[in-house]
């Protein structure tokens, strides 16, 4: 919350200005309005979202999961008291205290009162919200994140990045789920990678070529390439070149976060331009796909949509805009 407080206020910020035909034309940021956040078991979401919504002058309605109910209520009580102690004469946020799932179904139909819904949680929750909501939804369904290990690499750094992306926190949406390895380095790279993964009990599933190199691993099925495991499981494929890697990512991925490991600058640029994902990285772990890591203070969620917001969402993504035009009696001929 202190990090969010330090950020510039996005409201009334001018994002376009032009003088034309004696008119002063401005495009200015404004709050979206009333934002509903539906989330599951992480109570830090409560404080993060309240801070971001308050800073961006939106009213928040928060509905957390029953597993973190008492933590959510404790955070709500502290922040509610702080808001009134600071002199506010209105409630800037509301936390729904009823854990009955039917409440959510009712609220999702109130598009005349609520401007936006942001669901945070598992794929089942998000799909349910999208299906039932009459209110616009910004979301990502899942994080099927990839790392492509090119042929020209620093071997030690490549292994370090791949291991961190899988094991540092495997249950989150920016953990890597698939690793693609260039065929020219597969025989030298994969045994070293497996040795490190074995230290963390990571289960490896592989395509035909990977199974030839890493004897005894489980053969990947078609559904594995689409799967978000959120666990110590990884699927690995040997690819011919960067073009095959990009095609694979765009077909099987979830357009969340994908990374390339390479020394080739032209391949980095090709990957950035052709991979259709919200976050494209070079030579870093996918775990950096996070609003706080991006310097946004916190995040309200991550979007794989292309309209309004994409990637980690923070203050600016919680705004819309108005066209403000001033003149002196002009008429259009």
Structure write-up:
With 333 residues, the protein is of the alpha/beta class. It folds into two domains: 2-139 and 305-326, Aldehyde Dehydrogenase, Chain A, domain 1, CATH 3.40.605; 145-288, Aldehyde Dehydrogenase, Chain A, domain 2 (3-Layer(aba) Sandwich), CATH 3.40.309.10. It is built from ten helices and 16 strands. A seven-stranded parallel sheet has the order 10-9-11-8-7-12-13, sandwiched between helices. It has a four-stranded parallel sheet with strand order 5-4-3-6, with helices on both faces. The protein has a three-stranded antiparallel sheet with strand order 1-2-16, with no helix packed on it. Helix 8 links the parallel strand 9 (203-206) and strand 10 (218-219). Helix 2 (44-55) packs parallel to helix 3 (69-85) and helix 6 (155-167) packs across helix 7. It is globular. The termini are far apart. The mean pLDDT is 96.
CATH topology of the largest domain: the name is Aldehyde Dehydrogenase, Chain A, domain 1
CATH class division of the largest domain: Alpha Beta
Number of helical segments with 4 or more residues? 10
CATH architecture of the largest domain: 3-Layer(aba) Sandwich
Task: Give start-end ranges of low-pLDDT stretches.
Answer: none
The oligomeric status of these chains comes to single chain
Structural class, from secondary structure content? alpha/beta
For the termini, the CA-CA separation is 52 Å
CATH superfamily of the largest domain: Aldehyde Dehydrogenase, Chain A, domain 1
Instruction: Assign a percent range to the helix content.
Output: 25-40%
What's the alpha carbon Rg, rounded to whole Å?
23 Å
| Main sheet specs | 7 strands, parallel
- What is the 3D form? globular
């Amino acid at each position: 919350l202190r990090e969010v407080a330090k950020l510039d206020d996005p409201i009334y910020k001018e994002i376009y200005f032009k003088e034309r035909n004696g008119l002063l034309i401005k495009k200015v940021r404004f709050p979206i309005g009333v934002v509903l956040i539906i989330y599951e078991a992480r109570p830090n979401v409560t404080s993060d979202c309240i801070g971001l919504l308050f800073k961006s002058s939106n009213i928040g309605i928060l509905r957390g999961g029953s597993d973190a109910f008492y933590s959510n209520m404790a955070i709500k009580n502290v922040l509610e008291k702080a808001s009134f102690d600071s002199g506010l004469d209105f409630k800037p946020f509301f936390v729904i205290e009823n854990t009955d799932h039917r409440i959510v179904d009712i609220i999702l139909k109130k598009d005349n009162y609520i401007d936006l819904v942001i669901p945070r949680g598992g794929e089942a929750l998000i799909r349910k919200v999208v299906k039932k909501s009459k209110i616009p939804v910004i979301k990502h369904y899942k994080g099927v994140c990839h790392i492509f290990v090119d042929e020209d690499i620093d071997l030690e750094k490549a292994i370090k990045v791949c291991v961190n992306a899988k094991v540092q926190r495997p249950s989150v949406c920016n953990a890597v789920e698939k690793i693609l390895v260039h065929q020219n380095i597969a025989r030298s790279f994969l045994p070293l990678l497996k040795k490190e993964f074995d230290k963390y009990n990571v289960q490896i599933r592989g395509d035909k070529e990977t199974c030839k190199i890493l004897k005894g691993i489980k053969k990947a099925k078609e559904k594995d390439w689409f799967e978000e495991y959120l666990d110590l499981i990884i699927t690995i494929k040997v690819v011919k070149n960067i073009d095959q890697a990009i095609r694979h990512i765009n077909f099987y991925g979830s357009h969340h976060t994908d990374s390339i490991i390479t020394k080739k600058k032209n391949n980095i640029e090709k990957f950035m331009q052709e991979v259709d994902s919200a976050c494209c990285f070079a030579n870093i772990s996918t775990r950096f796909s996070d609003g706080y890591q991006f310097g946004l203070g916190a995040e309200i969620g991550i979007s794989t949509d292309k309209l309004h917001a994409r990637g980690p969402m923070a203050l600016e993504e919680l705004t819309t805009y108005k066209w403000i035009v001033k003149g002196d009696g002009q008429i259009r001929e």
